[in-house]
Amino acid sequence: MYEVEATAAGGMLHAIGTNMSATASSPQLEISADAALVAAVRAGDRDAFGRLYDTYSRMVHGILLARVPYGEVDDLVQDVFLVALRKIESLRDANLFGPWLAMITRNRAMDFHRRSRDTAELTDDIATTNVTAPEAEATEVLNLIRQLPEAYREPLILRFVEGMTGPEIAERTGLAPASVRVNIHRGMKLLRERLGGTKIEREH
Amino acid sequence: MSDYLWDKTGEPEEDVAQLENLLGALKYQPRPLDIPETAMPQTVAAATRPTPMLIFSRPRLALAASLLLTLLAGVWLLTRAPQTQELAKVKQGGATSESKRTEATAIAPNAATPRSDSVDNALAPKPRENTAVVVATETKTHRPSPRQLVARRQKLTPRVNQRMNAPLEEVAANGTMRWQVERPLTPQQREATEQLMLALRLASAKLNYAQREMQEIGRAGK
């Protein structure tokens, strides 16, 4: 079983459960563009940060969606980018902005659960009472995906919810393309098993 | 070989397409990012920039204070040592010189000196005046600096005050007032003083050197 966990703090990627080494393999041009934008942000360019936000907001949204209730995600996306902006001086390798941002996003999601322990935590049922019928069905499937092993959740949500391709997911998150590909296929296989006989199968 | 699930090339499988359509309703709806003015890195850096007062950090202040104390102690000892030597000279000179002896007698009449009531009355103790005369006598041999004069007065004043507070009976019994001048230093004491002064000068020079080095390092660091 392939489970790859990215820790982007030092640009290090750890392969767990296998001897597969994961490396960030993204087009050099895109990486250089990120580095240039990061440098511009450090110099105080707000527009540059806006472009980084446009590029990575879907990734952040997807990673959060794999961990926190749907109704909380939009606000947390904003929080994540503000945290990133405040900490951008601590980013050592500007080429690894994506993995670094993904790590901040995962930490923010964990922090959300830690803080909400003392308060009444909204379940997805309560949080989505005002959503439309298609959204309710989508939330139901989303809950099924959330019940899958952690390694499969993120790639599947980024693929189906955010509409990103596999190479794009690998590039943005800094995970190895091979790992993403395997996780998407294995996750899809498990999801099919869980979806067997459910409403979605019946309706469509 | 096409793999739609991986890179969206080729024909999608039915359930994959259905999932894309269904879950696509939850995708991120772009909304403008509200960036507070204070959140920009340059603003944050300006807010956390060290103030000029931080240049005077605690270790530097401690070093400066210790330097100052050392220098003050050195100055005090330097002014004190010549003073005691001069007082000793005055005393020795008073013993040898006839004219000075007369003056010394007038200032501090010895108990052995023949006395009469009129003389005693004339020599009624007026400590402050006598102190001034002592100083004036000393200026004949060597003109002390104002700092030495102040230090000398500070040294003599307690004795005068002590004497002034003495019971009148004691003064009457003695009939005279003996002025005590500090004993001259013995050669061993003088040598020890000189060694101490040398050590203090060395320590002061070293501290000055360390201070200059720190200042140069500070300038290079900027």
What does this molecule look like?
- The complex is a heterodimer of chains A (204) and B (222).
- By secondary structure, chain A is mainly alpha-helical.
- Chain A is built from ten helices and two strands.
- In chain A, helix 2 packs across helix 3 and helix 2 packs across helix 4.
- The longest helix of chain A has 20 residues.
- Chain B is mostly helical.
- Chain B contains ten helices and no strands.
- In chain B, helix 4 runs antiparallel to helix 10, helix 5 packs antiparallel against helix 7 and helix 7 runs antiparallel to helix 8.
- The longest helix of chain B has 39 residues.
- Chain B is rod-shaped.
- The chains are: A mainly alpha (204), B mainly alpha (222).
- The interface between A and B is large, with 50 and 31 residues.
Strand content of chain A: under 5%
What would you call the shape of chain A? globular
User: In terms of per-residue confidence, which ranges of chain A show pLDDT below 50 for 5 or more consecutive residues?
Assistant: 1-28
Please give the count of helices of chain B: 10
Shape by Cα distribution of chain B: rod-shaped
Question: How are the SSEs ordered, and which strands pair?
Answer:
The complex is a heterodimer of chains A (204) and B (222).
Chain A: E1 3-7, E2 12-16, H1 28-42, H2 46-65, H3 70-87, H4 97-115, H5 124-127, H6 133-146, H7 150-160, H8 166-173, H9 177-195, H10 199-203
Antiparallel strand pairs in A: 1-2
Chain B: H1 4-7, H2 14-23, H3 41-47, H4 58-96, H5 98-107, H6 117-122, H7 127-141, H8 146-164, H9 168-174, H10 187-221
Write a short abstract of this structure.
Chain A has ten helices and two strands; from the N terminus they run ββαααααααααα. Chain A has 204 residues and is mostly helical. The longest helix of chain A is centred in the first third of the chain and has 20 residues, at 46-65.
